[in-house]
Design goal:
The protein has 260 residues and is an alpha/beta fold. The protein is 49% helix and 15% strand. α1 (28-42) runs parallel beside α3.
């Protein structure tokens, strides 16, 4: 069985994590497949938006605990394997935010531990109303330190700390209120709502979205003054793009742009 499926349509690439029996856990194979797919899509100029979803009952249940326990059989008790695993996972997560196309998580069932991290890492997220989110590793004695990185960059610190230290699951409604997801919808509407956002993004000038995504994450790490200086330069370069000139002229002339 192919562990990750890809389907392209109307400038949108849909990736489906396809390990339903393991709740789409981030196994070694899944991590490799996701990173490879993101690399391929990043280089594919025909793709303007990405939807990431899971098959079966869940979006993603986090790391594969069976594989992690098997890693303990080495002479070092698994230290080298665990370090490599978390490094590979971090690299995959960061690839989502460095690739030019926005990535939209279409979430259902559960998104736990590194699966919740995956939702927090995606540029946008839509979930069905019944989805539950948690960084619940503490329940089994493993604090979700790496998922914490993405989580604390999405939701208020005290809310994140409560989730991390209690293992409490939150509902889709609470996840929306906290800012972990963009919105929650009825399960029947989930594919449509996600597709609508993807199509809206795909209809925009791809070079502008690429520029904007890169600038979005870069400026977020800067002081306010540095962020304004940096984004001012970004806007200058954006204004000098021929297609941007065409887009502005089209707006002023009340017509559709004729982008290259």
């Amino acid at each position: 069985m192919t562990i990750l499926l890809r389907e392209d349509s109307d400038h949108i690439a849909t990736l489906t994590m396809n390990a339903p029996a393991r709740l789409n856990a981030l196994s070694d194979d899944m991590l490799a497949a996701l990173h490879s797919a993101f690399d391929d899509i990043a280089a594919d100029e025909t793709v303007r938006a990405v939807i990431l979803r899971g098959s079966g009952k869940a979006f993603c249940a986090g790391h594969d605990l069976n594989e992690m326990q098997a890693g303990r059989q080495s002479e070092d008790g698994g230290a080298a394997y665990f370090k490599d695993l978390f490094d590979r996972c971090a690299a995959m997560m960061q690839r989502i935010q460095t690739m030019p196309q926005p990535v939209i998580a279409q979430v259902h069932g559960i998104a736990t531990a590194a699966g919740c991290q995956l939702v927090a890492t995606c540029d946008l997220a839509i979930a069905d109303d019944e989805t539950r989110f948690g960084v619940n590793g503490v329940n089994i004695g493993l604090f979700c330190s790496t998922p914490m990185v993405a989580l604390t960059r999405n939701i208020p610190r005290k809310a994140a700390f409560e989730m991390l230290t209690t293992g409490r699951f939150i509902s889709a409604r609470e996840a929306q209120e906290l800012g972990l997801i963009n919105r929650s919808v009825h399960a029947d509407a989930l594919p449509r709502e996600t597709a609508e956002i993807a199509h809206s993004i795909a209809s925009k000038l791809a070079s502008a979205v690429k520029t904007g995504k890169q600038a979005f994450y870069a400026q977020a790490q800067m002081t306010t003054a540095d962020a304004y200086a940096y984004t001012g330069d970004v806007m200058v370069q954006n204004m000098l793009v021929d297609d941007t000139n065409e887009g502005i002229n089209a707006f002023l002339e009340k017509r559709d742009p004729n982008w290259s």
